[in-house]
Amino acid sequence: MNGARQASLFLDMLVAERGASKNTLDAYRRDLDDYLAYLNEAGARPDAATAATIRGFMASLDERGLKATSAARRLSAVRQFHKFLYVEGYAPADPTAAVSAPKRGRALPKVLSVDQVDRLLQVAHEGVARPEASPAERLRAARMACLLELLYATGLRVSELVSLPSSAAKTRDRFLVVRGKGAKERLVPLTDAARDAARAYLALLEEQGKAVGPWLFPADSETGYLTRQAFARDLKAVAAGAGLRGDKISPHVLRHAFASHLLQNGADLRVVQELLGHSDISTTQIYTHVLDERLKSMVRDLHPLSSGE
Q: What is the pLDDT, as a whole number, of residue 146?
C-alpha cells in the first residue's frame, strides 16, 4: 500500500473516530502532503521510515525557514500518522517516538483591554445608526455588531461563531448549546446585549426581504455562511474606526479578550476552560499570566504587611 493511500485511511479515521472538521482535515492533509513529498524525494516509504528519516524531515523544515511553531505542528501530524500506521498494523514500529519536537517559546496571546473592546462595539453599533448608510451598509454593520457582541459574550471559536444557526437569534435562554471540536457540545453564556444585537440583526434581515435560512450569518460561500476570512476582513475596518492597529485585532484576539477579562474579574481557570471548549487545561494555561497579575494585586492590596506599593 502506498503512502498516499495510507494517508487517506488516516484522514478517514480522523473523521470517523474523532469527528474532525473540514478545517482540521485540510490542515492534516497539507502537513502530510508535505511529509509524503519529502519521503518521495528521499526514496522512502511511511511504513519503512526510521527515526533518522523523521529527523531528516524536521531538518528540511528548518532549512526552509519554518517557524518552530509550524514545524512542531507538522511533527504532531506526522506523529499521529505513524502511530495510526503502527496501531493498525501497517508498519512494524513508530519511528517518531524517539524524535523531540523543536523548542519554542510560548507566546502570550494578544489581548485587548475592556476599553478597547467597548470602542470596537461602539463603532460597530454606530455603523447601524448612520443616517446616510445604504440598506446594504446598515445590514453589514448590524451583522458586525451581532458578531462582536456574540463573540465577546461567549468566547466562541471563529468557526463556531460564523456557523451558528439562525435559531440562535431567537432563543429565550441565557445560553447557547454549541457543537465544538470533536462534535462535543458545551453551554456558553448569552448576555442581554448579545441577544439584543442578534435579534436586531435578524429583524433587519427580514425587513430587507432577505431569506432567513438555516444560518444566522448567510453568505454566498461554499458552506452557505460567512467565511472566517470575510469576518476578519470586516473586523479590520471596524478596528480602524476604533483607532486600533490592524495587526492588533482579529476574531481570535476577541476570544482571548473574553477569557482574559473573565480571569481578571475572578473567574476560575477550569470554568474558563469549559467555556472555551478546551479539552486539556494545559491549553487554557496560556492565560496564567493574567492569574499571576491578579494574585500579585491581591497580595499587594490585601496582605496586612504590604506597603501597597
A: 96
